[in-house]
Design a protein that fits this description.
The protein has 126 residues and is an all-beta fold. The chain has no helices and eleven strands.
């Protein structure tokens, strides 16, 4: 069975850090574009970050630039989102995603992705 399982969400105070992980089973991540999306109550689904298989293309939303880092461990078949200097407006359900394949660049559009994690809640509050 194909699985893409997220973990690492939780409650953190403003200014804190959190690392989200998605572990893929039944399919490989090493040749795929991977991405992270989020959706907060009353807000649109937002592309947070993505990375091509070659790491030649990396994208961060303006709202998270300088604070979030996407990375991949191909040996562990895992994609990560390191989140630092968290703000209350980062509160959302976060979803990892992977495409069937990869181009040189990545695109933060849900239509580009085919495999999705179940979502994990991140709450930033004092």
């Amino acid at each position: 069975q194909l699985q893409f399982v997220e973990s690492g969400g939780g409650l953190v105070q403003p200014g804190g850090s959190l690392r989200l992980s998605c572990v893929a089973s039944g399919f490989n991540l090493d040749y795929r574009t991977v991405g992270w999306f989020r959706q907060a109550p009353g807000k649109e689904h937002e592309g947070v970050s993505c990375k091509s298989s070659s790491d030649g293309g990396v994208y961060y939303a303006d709202s998270v630039k300088g604070r979030f880092t996407i990375s991949r461990d191909n040996d562990k078949n895992t994609v990560y989102l390191q989140m630092n200097s968290l703000k209350p407006e980062d509160t959302a359900v976060y979803y990892c995603a992977a495409a069937f394949n990869s181009g040189y660049e990545c695109y933060p559009s849900p239509d580009e992705y085919d495999y999705w994690g179940q979502g994990t809640q991140v709450t930033v509050s004092s």
